[in-house]
Structure formats: C-alpha cells, structure tokens
Write a structure and sequence with these properties.
One of its GO terms (biological process) is peptide catabolic process. Helices cover 46% and strands 14% of the residues. The chain is an alpha+beta fold. It folds into 4 domains: 3-187, 2-Layer Sandwich (Zincin-like), CATH 3.30.2010; 211-354, Neutral Protease, domain 2, CATH 1.10.390; 362-497, Sandwich (Immunoglobulin-like); 515-651, Alpha Horseshoe (Zincin-like fold), CATH 1.25.50. A hairpin with a 2-residue loop joins strand 16 (396-402) and strand 17 (405-412). The longest helix has 26 residues, at 528-553. The two termini are 37 Å apart. Residues 189-194 have low confidence and may be disordered.
C-alpha cells in the first residue's frame, strides 16, 4: 500500500481547508498519523516521531514535520510508504531518493542519485541563488499519471523515469533520467528518450516554487522556463549530448506542428482561465514546449549571459512571492538598458507580447531577387476556415547566413520589409538561409530561385548548411507543402541529396514526413509504396549499412550515440518495410540467435524490428517462441509490449486467428490486453479483415 499526494493545480482543497490559489502563500505545519510499519514524508524534514493509541488500543506513529517555507498550497505534499532510499549530501542539502526496496537493492536508483546533486549545484551557480531547503526527497512512484511533480522538498516522479539498470550501457536511458531530474529541480527555481529530459525538468522547478505565477494564465513562466533549463542541465551532466539538435528535435519541431492548429496563446488573460477544468487543460505542450522555444529564442537574441543576469535579478526580487510575465520583461529591460552591446528594435515587453499574447506563429517568405521578407500567420491554406486574413504581426529576430558565412542579426517588425543585404544578384550560386539553427520560433518559405540553389548546394556540399538548419529546411518545406504554400515536388527536390545525409535525427524527420505512420499497411498506401521503395531505399542504403555494420560487429560503439538509440528503430523498420533484403536477413539472423540462446539480448534499439520480422519471416516455431518469451515471468514491461506487437506480424492467417482467440482469454492475458491484440492485428495487411470479422463474431 502506498499513499502519495498530487495537489497541482487545484486539489489541495480536497485534502485540507484552504484558499487554494497560487498567489496566496503561507507557511505550513504538517503532522501525519500513520501505520508504524510505514514511513511518512513531507516537504520539510521530520522533527519528531512519537506514538499514540486510538480508541481501540491500536498503536499508531505520529510524524511531525518542521514548519515549511512560505509557499503556495499546490506545492504541499506528503507520501506514506514502506520504501527504502539511497542518499548523498550536496552543499549541505541532504538528497534522498526513495523507491521500492528491491529497486534500491539492485542499484537502479544510483545513477539518478549521482546526477541530482550536481544538477542542484549547476542551478545554484548559473542562477546565483542558494537552494533554500535543508533536504530534498525524490520518490519513485510505480504508477503516476502526472509523470512528475515538483513539490518543494518532496519531488514525486514516475518510477520508470528514474530507474537505470546498471547493466544497460546505453545513454538514451541516462539522457532521459538527466532531463527529468533537471526539469523538476529547475522548478524547485521557475515517450524513453524524453523521460530523462523530464527528470531534469522536475529538478529545475525550484525556481517556480521560489517565484510562483500570480495566476494559472502565466503557467508557462513556471513550465516553459523549467523546460528550457532541463536541456541546459542535461547538456551539463552529459556534455556528449548535442544540445541544439536535441532541443530542436524534441521541443521546437513537435510544438511548431501542433501550434499551427492551436486556438490559444501562451499567456491568456486571467478572466479566460476560470474553474479547475480550464486550468488543467493549460498543462499542455503549448505551455511546456512553446514556452521553452520562446525562452530559447529570447536567450538567443539577448545572449545567454544577459538573459541569466536578468533571470537572477527577477528571482531574487520575487523570492517567496508571485509575479507575472510583465515582471520578467521589466527585469530584462533594466539589464538591456544598462549596456549597449545588444540593441533591440522595440521594448522587451512589445517584442515578447507579440509572441506570448497572440496564438500561432509566423511564416516568413523571402524573395532573394528583391531582398523582401514578408510575414503572415502560418495557417492551413487548404482549410478555408483558417485562411481568414488577420493582421497579426510579430517582432521577429532573424539570424541568417549568406553563402555559408553568418551575418548580423536582423529584425522584422512590420508585415514586410526590404533588406538590401539579402538581395542576391551576382552569382547563380549565391544563397541565403534564414533562421539559422532554428533559433527563432517560426517557419521560413523561400522563392523558387533560392530553393533551387539550396537543393543544388545540398547535392554538392550538404555540410555547408549546419545540421539543425538542414533539419529545419526540410521539415519547413514538407509542412509548407502539406499546408498549401508550396508544391510537394518542391519539397522532394530537397531530398535528392539524402544519400549523403549521415545525421539520424534528420533522417528521422524525413521519414516522419515521407512514410505513413501506419507502416504495416501497404494496402492503404498502394500508390505511394512502390514509389517510396524505388526512391527512398537507394538513398537510405549508405546510412543503413553504416549502422548495420555496428550491429554486426561492434554494438558497444553506439553506447554514446544518443540518436542511434532514439531513432535507429525507425530507420531499420522502414528499410525492412521497403523490402531491403539485408535488413530482413539481419532480423531473421538475430531472432534465430535469440531462439538458440534465450539469454542473448537483441540490441534494444532495434528489438521491435527484429522481433516483428523474425516472426513475419518465420513459421509457427518462431511465433511460439515469441509467445513463450511473452509468458515468461522475467520479461520486463518493455519486452512484453514489443512481443505483443511482434506476434501480430505473422504472415500465416491461422496464427493470427489463434492470437486473436488468445486475446479473449482471461487466463492467458490480463483483460486490458484484448484491445491491444485486436488493434495490433487490424493494422496488418492480412489481419485487417480478419480482426473485423473476429470482433463481429465475438461481440
């Protein structure tokens, strides 16, 4: 039995009577009466543990905690558990990580403990603010819907986000833990890969606890700043992580996709946010990822040094109280006014309000013949409703590059403007690139002339364009084609060079744009499948063979390759789906190796592909082995999910039908697997009709 509280945003009122609003801060005296075989934890250290008897003569333990610092109700917390812990002290701050006894005994929390102290110190040093509490407890909860919560002094986090199995050498798991720790500690000041980032996120949040938003409409000040810092912290803990690539891939690109359909701005007016339902709905990717992207852009045009200086002054002035976004803009303005290196075209408030108070974001269109850039809100032109003209304009920082050399930052502060420096007349090979390394929160569209030159450049010298800019250029042009700004042929022109592309995160984005999500169904993709097979496969061969070499000979060499661990599965699945014989043979070979020796571990980052195609290319023997491994008590949840999916890859219809029958059985499966089995089978070409008939027969 375990009890853990989650008060954010408006649930403290369910636990004790209070004015449950972030601006009403108080100190709290907490005392918990509990079963003697359990331990009670709260925000502050325990100062007294005594015993009492109830009216039936049963003995209870009473744990009394020290008076808390002044804080909001949503940050009060308690846990009652029979967990064990690992501990260390960092600069006088006692850190304990609590988890199930067997997880602690197996050393699964040691990695999280080893990075938590350094992240606290990193934050204190960067922000020049001391952590105000004498202790920090982090509790790994086996199930936790919120993922993580930055309760001051008592951070609660989903167990899977904190555990690192010492025998598992690979870094994507470590990167995940580092991110989650740093996010939550960062508050303490404002899908596996992403988990580590989320760990940082929760550690970073003590500055959100120190300075809380006045009201939930400025929630992004807490979450967006912490999301930005989680990436700085992850790069600090593991310098091998490429910060700009991971940030653009995990944060900016996904939220740009979502924000084009969004109807709300980052900061809403207070009167719009009424009632706890709409408060809860603010905990979305606009708040977290758009907030982080806007912060990334702000830090970029201010310089990180000035941004951190302003943030420190803001945190010091509003410690133990509340603020809104205008308070932050005022502090930044003061820092800007006191120096003359960074010049802005308008006040910080005017610039930033254009990004936080309007929904959506702009698309810039550059004409290199005239040097004109115009801006408009990025909308779906295929959807008539969304193309009503509005006069939204943003004050836009434009980082840019001409023929490979970086140019001074420009600003676009009206709907269109001529930049003579961007006129390209002389050579037929001159080119311009805007928004270098995705430093600004917007998309870019170019005239045909510049696009042609960029496509030519990619084919001849792809590295002349920085990796993050290649990623952004291709993603922008595919999304622009999808939304009716350019033709799909224009987008495809920029993919001709791909045989020379060696960055997996770029390949992942290309596959995201080109390959249907439901890979299995060639039926639904009958028109595009043969074309993709012809066009894509030959361009994939160099990068496929590069990584297949490691899998054949030296898998350990990929130990520090974060993107290989995150995205190799997608590359290999696509290669097998497109019928690359080497990929199919490799899958059969590794699956057979596992059948011969169940102790053998298929490299985890292609395990899904190998199991699926191992079953698909095999017969009943291969399927039965997958079933045997699935029912094996030692299988982890991850393994079970992979096998549950792989068993639906069978090519013999009787095996699929038997699998569907198994799915109905309460003795073979837990009841929540039935729908998963049906959904897995229905996604396959041969299972599509069979699953439907099975559902109607067994309704």
């Amino acid at each position: 039995v375990l009890i853990a509280s989650q008060m954010e945003p408006a649930f403290a009122r369910r636990v004790y009577p209070c004015f449950d609003e972030p601006a009403m801060k108080a100190t709290f005296n907490i005392r918990i009466v509990h079963d003697p075989s359990y331990v009670a934890l709260s925000n502050m250290p325990a100062i007294d543990v005594s015993e009492m008897k109830d009216e039936n003569g049963s003995l209870w333990t009473v744990t009394t905690f020290n008076t808390s610092l002044k804080m909001s109700t949503y940050l009060t917390a308690f846990v009652v558990c029979d967990f064990d812990y690992v501990t260390r002290t960092e600069r006088g701050n006692k850190i304990r990580i609590w988890a199930r006894k067997e997880a602690i005994g197996n050393g699964y929390l040691d990695y999280a403990l080893s990075i938590t102290g350094p992240i606290f110190s990193f934050l204190e040093d960067v922000l020049n603010i001391s952590y105000p509490l004498p202790k920090t407890d982090l509790v790994a909860l086996p199930e936790f819907g919120a993922g993580g919560m930055e309760n001051w002094g008592l951070v609660t986090i989903q167990e899977s986000s904190l555990m690192y199995i010492p025998s598992d050498k690979f870094t994507s798991r470590k990167a995940m833990i580092a991110l989650i720790v740093s996010h939550e500690l960062g508050h303490q000041a404002c899908e596996q890969t992403k988990d580590i980032l989320r760990y940082f996120f929760f550690l970073f949040k003590w500055f959100g606890n120190l300075v809380t938003m006045n009201w939930w409409n400025d929630l992004w000040l807490n979450e967006g700043l912490a999301s930005y810092f989680e990436y700085l912290g992850a790069a600090f803990v593991d310098p091998k992580l490429s910060l700009d690539k991971i940030f653009c891939d995990h944060v900016v690109q996904p939220v740009l996709r979502e924000d084009s359909e969004t109807v709300r701005s980052l900061s809403e007016s207070e009167d719009k946010i009424k009632g706890s339902f709409s408060i809860t709905s603010l905990f979305d990717s606009i708040t977290y990822n758009k907030g982080a992207s806007i912060t990334w852009m702000l830090s970029g045009f201010l310089t990180e040094k000035l941004f951190i200086r302003a943030l420190t002054s803001y945190l010091k002035e509003f410690s133990f109280s509340n603020a809104n976004q205008d308070d932050l803009w005022t502090h930044i303005q003061t820092i800007i006014d006191a120096q003359d290196k960074v010049q802005l075209p308008a006040s910080v408030k005017q610039i930033m309000d254009s990004w936080t108070c309007q929904n959506g974001f702009p698309v810039l269109t550059l004409n290199i013949t005239t040097g004109t850039i115009r801006q408009e809100q990025f909308l779906n032109k295929n959807n008539r409703r969304s193309t009503d003209p509005n006069n939204n304009t943003w004050i836009i920082p434009i980082s840019w590059m001409k023929n490979g050399s970086s140019q001074p930052l420009m600003w676009l502060d009206k709907s269109s403007k001529v930049f003579p420096e961007m006129q390209v007349l002389e050579s037929e090979y001159d080119w311009i690139l805007l928004n270098v390394n995705l430093s600004g929160y917007y998309r870019v569209n170019y005239d045909q002339l510049n696009l042609k030159r960029l496509a030519h450049l990619l084919e001849n010298d792809p590295k002349a364009i920085p990796a993050v800019s290649r990623f952004q250029l291709i993603d922008d042009v595919f999304v622009l084609s999808k939304f009716g700004y350019v033709q799909i042929e224009t987008a495809l022109e920029l993919t001709k060079y791909l045989a020379r592309e060696d960055e997996l995160f770029i390949w992942n984005m290309v596959l995201l744009n080109l390959v249907p999500k439901k890979l299995e169904s060639t039926l639904k993709n009958y028109e595009v499948y043969p074309l993709l097979k012809k066009y894509l496969l030959k361009r994939m061969l160099p990068i496929y063979h590069y990584y297949a070499g490691f899998i054949h000979k030296n898998i350990d060499a990929l130990e520090d390759d974060y993107f290989a661990q995150a995205y190799l599965e997608k590359l290999f699945t696509t290669a097998c789906w497109l019928g690359l014989q080497d990929c199919l043979d490799l899958s059969s070979e590794l699956y057979a190796k596992w059948m011969d020796n169940p102790e053998y571990k298929i490299p985890f980052f292609i395990r899904g592909t190998v199991c699926c195609y191992g079953v698909a290319l095999g017969s009943a023997k291969e399927w039965n082995f997958a079933w045997e491994m699935y029912t094996h008590t030692d299988s982890t949840e991850d393994d079970k999910d992979i096998l549950l999916s792989a068993m639906s890859c069978a090519k013999e219809s009787w095996l699929l039908y038997r699998y569907l029958q198994y799915g109905l059985s309460d003795t073979l499966f837990s009841s929540n697997c039935t729908s998963t089995v049906i959904l897995n089978v229905v996604a396959k070409d041969i299972g599509h009709r069979m699953a439907w008939e099975f559902v109607t027969e067994n309704w």
